[in-house]
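Changelog note: in this version the structure field was regenerated for every chain. One regenerated record is shown below for reference.
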Amino acid sequence: MKLFRKRKWLAGLLAGMMLSSCGIIPEEETFQEVPYVGDYESTEFVTALCTKMDITAQVKVSLKYVPLQTVSLSFPVNGVPYGDVYVRAGDAVKEGDLLLELQTKQFIQDADRERTSIETNERTIRQLGEDREMELQMMNYRGSSISYERYLQSLDEINARYDARIRELEDQNEISQIKIAAYEADIEERRIYAPFDGVVTYIVNPDPADVSQTTKRVVTIADSSLSLFKGTTEYFSLFEPGMELTVVSGDSEFEAVVCSEEELGLPETDHIEGRTGTIYLALRETVYTLSDNAGGSVTLTQDERKGVLCVPKRAISEINGQNVVYCPDEYGMRTYKPVEIGLDNGNYVEIISGLEEGDPVIVR
């Protein structure tokens, strides 16, 4: 720069000498510095405008479907081939519905045989009663031809004979009833019924060669008396009992209400600020299509502002603990402005001070 000024001074001196030789002398010599401007390559910025808008901060919490109770059942006998399976996973069942069974054909046939025997004996007993009446009437007709003692003796003999036969048949029926009860117990031991209204969340799919094992789960039922979702979140304090929300599970939406552990009769867990806590949402209507541990989510509005200045979140930076935004100046250079920020919803940030509406901010 000094060399530039020296050369400029020499040029002025030469010009003065030339003017002097021509007889023209300037009144006063003045020298003006011309700043040197080197080559400059401008930087291109992507900007956005500080704009007034409504901003909402939301909290999304993941949930799992958790029925009030779930029970897994197995057969109490070993080594028995499987029979029929009457339900599939996802089916809604009522208390007492037959779900599946082992082979019971032989027990059913044996029980039916005893029932047939009882029916036959009952008919025989009724017939014996009719025969007795007829024989006693005939004896009454003959009573005049024999002594009274003989008549009474004959009546006793007739009744004793029929009583013995009827008692024999009744004893057989009692034995048959005992056998039937044993067969029915064997049948019931090989059947599994729904213990309550619920949803089948698991059911065995046995191969023809499979046999029962007392340690093998064959069916799981989830209680459907209350469709309940459970979540663990640091935002548990936002979920107040009685609050109505919408639970999204798959492509479905369900109206739900926040419930406390006390309301549900569940053991209370710690809810400490700064840590995660458990929340429960009960669906307004029982849903039979949800399986155990089905996923879901709920979105809750944490805070909102109306008509406030906002910039994209990616425009916010931090310098020494101070929030700033970078802006292009009048020469296209990057400069920064300190700002005070408010609500942040992850996409946009509220600007409390530091910018005016329409101010451009650099986002990239």
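Spot check on this record: The longest helix spans residues 148-189. Helices lie at 2-21, 105-142, 148-189, 261-264.
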